[in-house]
């Protein structure tokens, strides 16, 4: 049957009918809130390239965690801004049980118990003097197997401090199996792994590198380990390997420009898929809103809904607190 009997606008005519026909639901429970930790007490440092986002000292992170609980945001993702004097070529600060990340984990756990999930990024870039995610050889090449050994130590360090979800973002080969084995070996059977399985060498990470203080340090790029933005099949192979190695869930990153990857991964594997709406995407929305090119609240909710529609179980987004407030009305 076609027009005039079929009129798709009929279902769109009223708000109640649109609500009834809605296929996708976005709620605060879909959000993971990335937060940047810095040294000190009572410190809030606004990040110039991420308007509206700050680095917080540990006490501020605890306050944000309580805010997340109130807003119904189930999980935080923590990233440290390591002091320059604690950065080294081998990134050994990542293994320090009293590093900024571990102190933040313990403080949030003390304050919130199991009320909020704690996801930790595994990669050495916040700790290395050269800004790369792993150990480098004399030519500046990031060496895989030696790096994996350090990442295993970093993961155990985070698990001991209370991390619930270990999220390796380094793109080394074989790291998921190595980390899973080490976690099992130390009795962390219930610590999850969310693998940054399809992480692209993207131009959208600029403000993040400001936020963790690695902008001036990084020489060159990350193209020998992060994926070529031109590739899709390779993403499926990455996801397949990470699932086989023991990942509980996988991530696609960046987000909006890679929704085709989300969809393909979701169709190919029965596994929870998350996406990271990264710093450059956040900055674009903020810039558009500031320029009067769009309504911030509407842009935020529409983009986040798009992740759900594409097949995501949830989204890491710096807009998490704003979105949760809007969704709660
Ligand atoms: C660290 C890491 C990065 C991001 C998350 N984890 C930066 C990078 O790979 O250079 C980017 C997140 C963002 O841009 O919001 N490996």
UniProtKB/TrEMBL annotation:
Record's keyword annotation contains Metal-binding: yes
Reaction catalyzed: 2 5-aminolevulinate = porphobilinogen + 2 H2O + H(+)
Metal-binding in keyword set: yes
Broad class of enzyme this protein falls into: lyase
UniProt keyword list: Heme biosynthesis, Lyase, Magnesium, Metal-binding, Porphyrin biosynthesis
GO cellular component terms listed in the entry, alphabetical order: cytosol
Gene Ontology MF term list: porphobilinogen synthase activity; zinc ion binding
EC number: 4.2.1.24
Catalytic center residues: 199, 253
Pathway: Porphyrin-containing compound metabolism; protoporphyrin-IX biosynthesis; coproporphyrinogen-III from 5-aminolevulinate: step 1/4
BP-aspect Gene Ontology terms: heme biosynthetic process
One family name in Pfam for this protein: ALAD
Positions with a binding annotation for Mg(2+): 238
Subunit structure: Homooctamer.
Family per similarity comment: Belongs to the ALAD family.
Protein name: Delta-aminolevulinic acid dehydratase
Organism listed in the record: Novosphingobium aureum
Record lineage: Bacteria, Pseudomonadati, Pseudomonadota, Alphaproteobacteria, Sphingomonadales
Encoding gene per record: hemB
């Amino acid at each position: 049957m076609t027009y005039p009997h079929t009129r798709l606008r009929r279902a769109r005519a009223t708000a109640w009918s649109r609500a009834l026909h809605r296929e996708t639901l976005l709620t605060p429970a879909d959000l993971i809130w990335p937060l940047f930790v810095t040294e000190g007490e009572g410190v809030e440092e606004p990040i110039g390239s991420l308007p509206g986002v700050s680095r917080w000292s540990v006490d501020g992170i605890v306050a944000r965690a309580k805010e997340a609980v109130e807003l119904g945001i189930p999980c935080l993702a923590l990233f440290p801004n390591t002091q320059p004097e604690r950065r080294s070529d081998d990134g050994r600060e990542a293994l320090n049980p009293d590093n900024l990340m571990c102190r933040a984990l313990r403080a949030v756990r003390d304050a919130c118990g199991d009320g909020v999930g704690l996801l930790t990024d595994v990669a050495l870039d916040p700790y290395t003097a050269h800004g790369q995610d792993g150990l480098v050889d004399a030519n500046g090449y990031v060496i895989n197997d030696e790096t994996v050994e350090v990442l295993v130590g970093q993961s155990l360090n985070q698990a001991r401090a209370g991390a619930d979800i270990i999220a390796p973002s380094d793109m080394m080969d074989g790291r998921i199996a190595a980390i899973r084995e080490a976690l099992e070996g130390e009795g962390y059977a219930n610590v999850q792994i969310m693998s940054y399985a399809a992480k692209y060498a993207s131009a959208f990470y600029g403000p993040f590198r400001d936020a963790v203080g690695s902008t001036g340090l990084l020489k060159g790029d990350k193209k020998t380990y992060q994926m070529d933005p031109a590739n899709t099949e390779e993403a499926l192979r990455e996801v397949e390997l990470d699932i086989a190695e023991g990942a509980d869930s996988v991530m696609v990153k960046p987000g909006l420009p890679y929704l085709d990857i989300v969809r393909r991964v979701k169709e190919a594997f029965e596994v929870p898929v998350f996406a990271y709406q990264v710093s450059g995407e956040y900055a674009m929305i903020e810039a558009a809103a500031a320029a009067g090119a769009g309504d911030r609240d509407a842009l935020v909710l529409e983009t986040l809904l798009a992740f759900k529609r594409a097949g995501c179980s949830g989204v890491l987004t710096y807009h998490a607190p704003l979105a949760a407030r809007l969704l709660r009305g």
